[in-house]
Amino acid sequence: MYRILIVDDEKDERNVIRFLLKKFDFELEIIEAANGKEAFEELVRSPADILLTDVQMPFVNGIELATKVRERYDDIEIIFFSGHDDFNFVKKALTLRADNYILKPVKPEEFNQTMTEVMRNIRKRKEEQEKREVNQLFIKQHILYRLLNQTPIDILKNEYPFLNFDFLNDYNRMILVHSDTAFLDSLFEEENEYFYEVIKRATLDSKYDVINLNPFQIVLLFKDNLRRPFTYKEAAMQIQQKIQETYGINCVLSVSNHMKNPVQIAQTYNELEGYLKDRFFYSDVFIYPIDTPLTDSKEYKEDEYLLEEIERALQQGDTVELEQKISLIIQKYDKRTNTAQGYLRFLFARLLQLFFQTMPEYSKDSMNRYIELIYSYKHFSDIKQTLLEVQRKVIKGLEEEKNSPKHVIEIVKQYIIENIEKDLGLDMLAEKVYLTPGYLSDKFKQDTGVGINKYIKQVRMNKAEELLSNTNMKVNTISKVIGYKNDSYFIRIFREHLGVSPQKYREMKRR
């Protein structure tokens, strides 16, 4: 309900206004003041949407009151009512952006018309304000989504120069909620009030935002509640238990430490995802990271780094690097008696899991059998032998893949994507993979369904679309970034590809 403040030193006049508001069914909370001084004090205590004030009053007159009020509340609707009808009054009222003025004695129809217009203005302004707030909320959610997906904050500030990014400083904690089904995505879309009530209760009504990251993950970003502190891990346990009890879903939650600044948001999300790698080995654990001395030890961190390098070597098919890193980790623990057996089994089971990710011909059951062996062996030499056996199979598969035409095509495609700004051609690409141009051309079309030149053009157009949509880069700069030295030629090719010029495409994307 909107509020109206009626100001007049005559109570009878105020009663007339009250009567007319009731007569014409204006639903308003009515406050009264007998003079300008009293009125201003009332507005400072509790702002109103409408100020309806007489002009001639003791202490502070209506014009002085309106001047002070307008300085403090820019959006308030101001209506004067007075027995004076002269040009100087009208001129002054207009400078104060008065919405109207009514002559005394007040005519009911004139009053009704004026108030109807004022109420329409208020509703319109409130609707526009709500739209602005919704739009701002959407942009902020989008920025958080892109931050979590590793978009640098400087790029985002360049894309949204009108937005104050200080709101990012409010976030101090993060909880990643992960499900192996798309359950969380549907839960978020349905705006399930019970789910949000669970979070509020578990975190003692702490303020938070929810980011729907992908069909299997949502991120809870918290603003620390310093007046009512709570333990985030305990809160995560309550959330997990309620989800399990209510929906029959075993979600896992990963809880962050305190974040000091917005730059840490993306880094923290990566850490939370990293903690969840351990869940393969702990089927009955739902809150991460697990409280164990190993998670903070120097040795554990060194091994995590080695595992990352091994995973990278596997992804890149670098068999030489792979053998070196495996040899290094085996040498580190061979004949070492002061390492906990549980950790050793855990570490080498992790290695086997990485190996099996590169062997799609093996089922999950096969992997589980090997891991069961790791946990059943009594001697490290048996663990080492099993690991080397699987390693030989992996290396053989990687070598065969390297020598296959399909692998060569993937190398060419990756080279094109990573070197799009260069002068790419069939002869140069064939030389890179030690094939004749004719053979590469035939194999490329056979594998991808398109010729190399068409593929290069498609990659360049995709990159152009991305840069036009997500950056303020000039069209002539984009042309050079994607490998076209001639701007006019790039514009013509882009228009042929999408039916509009690059500039028009950018305008369409930003509407």
UniProtKB/TrEMBL annotation:
Q: Does the keyword DNA-binding apply?
A: yes
Q: Which PROSITE patterns would you find in this protein's record?
A: HTH_ARAC_FAMILY_2, RESPONSE_REGULATORY
Q: What is this protein called?
A: Response regulator
Tell me the ranges covered by the HTH araC/xylS-type domain, including all copies: 410-508
Q: Does the keyword Transport apply?
A: no
Chain positions with 4-aspartylphosphate modification: D54
Domain named Response regulatory is located at 3-119
Please provide the record's keywords in A-Z order: DNA-binding, Phosphoprotein, Transcription, Transcription regulation
Identify the InterPro entries for this entry. CheY-like_superfamily (IPR011006), Homeodomain-like_sf (IPR009057), HTH_AraC (IPR018060), Sig_transdc_resp-reg_receiver (IPR001789), Tscrpt_reg_AraC-type_HTH (IPR020449)
